[in-house]
Amino acid sequence: MTILGEFEAASFLPWIERHAAKLGLVQAICVAGPDRIELDIAGPAELIDMMEMGCSLGPIDVWVEAIHRAPIECESG
Amino acid sequence: MTRNTMIDGWYPVSLASQLDAHGRRTALMGEPIAVRRGEDGNAKVTGGNGRDLPTCIRYGHVWSSLGDPQKPLFAIPEADQPGRRLVDVGVVRVRCSPLRAVENFLDIAHFPFVHTDILGAEPHTEVQNYKVEIREDEDEVWATQVKFYQPQAAKSAEGGITTEYMYRVPAPTCSILYKTCPPRPGEWDVITLFVQPLAEDLCDVWPWMALFDDETPMTDLIHFQQTIFVQDRSILENQIPGLLPLDPGMEIPTRADLTSVAYRRWLKRHGYTYGAQLVAQ
Amino acid sequence: MPAQSPAGPVALWRSRSGRAAAFADRCPHRGMRLSHGFVRGETLACIYHGWSYAKAGNCLRIPAHPALAPPDTIRVATLRVEDGGGIIWISVGEPAAGPPRFEGLAPLRSMVLEAGIVALEAAAGTKAAEGLLDYTHDDRAVWLLLAPEGQARTLMHVLVDEDSNPDERIAASRAAEALRGAAEDIARGGIAR
Q: Which domain holds residue B44?
């Protein structure tokens, strides 16, 4: 899952981790920049949808422009 | 304190049909206002310090603003279409954030539980995927291809049908619902929710309809919509927190909540935060 | 039904098999009060979107997405419940001992007072000991088990001797109502002063 927007990654990353934990999703953040976060998540489609819903709104100091999802191609992480 | 960016919007303050010279005392975002028919026959709205406020009459209601509206009131082209019955439903006062009232109107997943055997029924609870977009030209939130099984979708509907919906949010406290019209395939019934923000946690809700239905008595149409809204009120007055969270950190939105999420994103982007909670707690 | 606890509002419910459970009174989906929900079998469902929860607090079903088996992590906070002697107790945290037992007493009814415990003690002319107020009225003993709901409101459970006959129970109930009135008068007077 790739999250694009404007964010203080410092405040957003713990938020993402907390939301994923609430959904019982194991995630690994691979890229964490001020305008791009990439994470690998595995789980049922409905739960990944829920992760996308939560993150697309996110905390108030973050603006998420778009979220893209792509199947993970057997890479590490 | 940051400027309230919702101050320049238009808000419903009265039914046009109930406008009289005596007037109605009400409030807009905490400021007491008075609405009456002026000597020239037009609506006249005055603010707390006696200043004249902008007014217009449209869609059965008197509209006003505490600020300086930069745009005319949003268009509902269907309102002028011949053959539609225009229904003033009246007002329902709800002790909730005006934004929560709109969000609930955009939600279909609650139909089987809150409007049982009217707008929904178990086991037909699944919400099929639908489309949501922000239309940049109009700056509006749109949800389309929303489909839901309904036992009695409208006063004119007999038996259960799968109803198709479109939702439109043209202003932070207004929403328009387009709904399959049983007697007139190809056309959409229009049901609107105009919300008057009295305070951040109190609103008057003015539903209004433009329907293709020549059969049902007017009182039945009004009663049907009021029944639905009173059922919604029992939800709206019991959500925690009272304000609409713009941070879903204490919530679990799902794909079925996509319209709600898009609405909140749109509010957040514009800084439309009167009635919103900014940080989850 | 809604209840209060020092940890905030609680949804207290009893399943079809008779087991009591206490949840934080807020659905984790969109914040609706779960005390407005409905019990179906061994689950409590939220009235808004029908999300249903087992007694342990884990979400069992999300009706809008019927194919999904919700993960164990989607859950509502629970409080420990003890159900004994006709009284349901909830605890915040994990107390070492169980709730007190009142041998020989039977619960009669519960009522809410718009008064704090101080006003109630003043009206009764006696002090409560460990939440139990031993009140004698017209030579008849009535026990009042008190649960404060903030400073100005008290939930009062009326207990009587378990051998009381119906007339004695009615008299005890009346005595508790009179005491409620007197305590509320004192509380109002306190505010007026």
A: 1-73
**Shared domain check, B57 and B160:** no
Mark which of B19, B38, B73 sits at the end of a domain. B73
Tell me the shortest Cα–Cα distance from C90 to chain B, in angstroms: 22
8 A C-beta contact, residue B188 and residue B177: no
Residue C74: its chain B contacts at CB < 8 A? 252
Estimate the crossing angle of helix A45-57 against helix B258-270, to 10 degrees. Answer: 20
pLDDT at B177: 97
Answer whether A21 sits within 8 Å of C71, measured CB to CB.
Answer: no
Q: Which of residues 15-74 of A touch C (CB under 8 A)?
A: 21-25, 43-44, 46-47
H-assigned helices in C95-165: 117-124
CB-CB neighbors (< 8 A) of C47 in chain B: 113-114, 234-235
Total domains present in chain B = 2
In chain C, what are the domains?
2-91 (2.102.10.10), 105-192 (3.30.70)
Mean pLDDT of the B80-105 span = 96
Cβ separation C74–A24 shorter than 8 A: yes
Mind listing the pLDDT tens digit for each residue in B12-34? 999 999 999 999 999 999 999 99
Same domain, B105 and B40: no
| B218 in the same domain as B83 | yes
Ramachandran region, residue C50 (left: φ > 0; alpha: ψ -120 to 50; beta: rest): left
